[in-house]
Amino acid sequence: MTGVRPVASLGVAVMVAFAAVAMVAAAAGNAREPVLVEIEIHYSRFAPSVVEVPAGRPVTFVLTNTDPIDHEWIVGDAALHERHRTGTEPNHDTRPTEVSLDAGATRRTAVTFDEPGARTFTCHLPGHEAYGMTGTLVVTQR
After folding, report:
1. DSSP 3-state assignment of 5?
2. β-strand 106-112 against 98-101: which pairing, if any?
3. Gap between the Cα atoms of 133 and 67, Å rounded
């Protein structure tokens, strides 16, 4: 009987080792999966107003405008926002970090942020930023 215990223990140890390898592989696979972030626009506010995402991973933003007026969601640094404050682009559809949302619309956009750091998201339609329609996107280390 004493010879059976080490074999049974070895079998259990091998199974545990395989399970650990499978869990690590699954976690590594999930690290490449897109992160889903939902942002709702209601009463000319972003909710949530602070979002954290990992650097280097694709992020799918689902933007839902429940207001009866149009909005936009523009993500970037201070220089980008300054250009938009004085710019004349009436509609945003070509850049994944610049999205126009009609009243009642839901839009999806996918972005991968390579560098960690803070960025701002803002609606630059007349008066919206002054009303407080801004938020913070924090990109963390991988």
Report:
1. helix
2. unpaired
3. 13
Instruction: Express each pLDDT in 65-81 by its tens digit.
Output: 999 999 999 999 999 99
Contact (Cβ atoms closer than 8 angstroms) between residue 107 and residue 91: no
DSSP designation for 132: T
Cα distance between residue 107 and residue 130, in whole Å = 24
C-alpha to C-alpha distance for 59 and 48, rounded to whole angstroms: 16
Q: What type of residue sits at position 117? A: G
Q: Is the pTM of this model over 0.85?
A: no
106: its two tokens: 């839901």
DSSP string, the chain: -TTHHHHHHHHHHHHHHHHHHHHHHHHHHHTTSPEEEEEEEETTEEESSEEEEETTSEEEEEEEE-SSS-EEEEEE-HHHHHHHHH-------SSTTEEEE-TT-EEEEEEE--S-EEEEEE--STTHHHHT-EEEEEEEP-
pLDDT in tens, 1-60: 444 444 444 444 433 333 333 333 334 446 678 899 999 999 999 999 999 999 999 999
